[in-house]
Recover the amino acids of this structure.
């Protein structure tokens, strides 16, 4: 569902451009709104959410999908934790839908999906591991890396129940905006993937904008 935001970037609390292959790891406070902006179009932002006061509570794909009765996320979706609490709510979305099933690229999956020589290519899981290693204040480790949301990524479900990685449905300037219902760690890998069409084989920056 397409819902445009009424917030003005000029009034934002902070703005960060995240290069392709880089990570973003910051706390969004309860009541604040965060926008993920697809600057050039068809980029994929692989994102995890954690309770900033207790990171053992984190985004649950199972609970979120079950409660909304849909495998895709869009405006109106409440993102639930593994304890059944609402973490964030999508309040604006100009893309239309976002993936919950495709997972994140890793050196292992690059090898299986593509070829052995793709193993050492940078992957989203590497970005997350680097993020938790460089942000010791959160007390997290690789054991905390779980299932993620792929904002802007197009992963259609086939009639047989399989998944396909298809051309992106986003475009330059499209965004998704979420309001935090609790203090939330936002851990994002701006996908560097060169082997599937999730970002048109051309990884580009995204911008993260936060309002009070």
């Amino acid at each position: 569902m397409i819902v445009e935001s009424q917030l003005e970037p000029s009034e934002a609390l902070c703005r960060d451009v995240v290069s392709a292959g880089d990570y973003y790891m910051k706390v969004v406070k309860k009541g604040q709104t965060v926008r993920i902006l697809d600057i050039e179009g068809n980029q994929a932002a692989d994102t995890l959410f954690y309770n900033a006061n207790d990171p053992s509570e984190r985004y649950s794909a199972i609970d979120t999908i079950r409660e909304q009765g849909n495998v895709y996320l869009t405006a109106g979706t409440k993102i639930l934790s593994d304890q059944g609490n609402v973490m964030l709510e999508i309040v604006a979305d100009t893309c239309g839908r976002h993936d919950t099933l495709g997972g994140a690229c890793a050196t292992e999956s690059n090898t299986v999906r593509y070829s052995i020589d793709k193993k050492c290519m940078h992957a989203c899981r590497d970005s997350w591991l680097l993020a938790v290693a460089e942000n010791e204040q959160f007390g997290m480790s690789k054991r905390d890396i779980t299932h993620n949301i792929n904002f802007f990524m197009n992963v259609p479900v086939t009639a047989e129940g399989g998944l396909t990685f298809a051309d992106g449905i986003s475009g330059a300037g499209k965004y998704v905006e979420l309001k935090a219902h609790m203090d939330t760690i936002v851990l994002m890998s701006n996908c560097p993937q060169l082997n599937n069409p999730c970002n048109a084989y051309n990884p580009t920056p995204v911008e993260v904008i936060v309002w009070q």
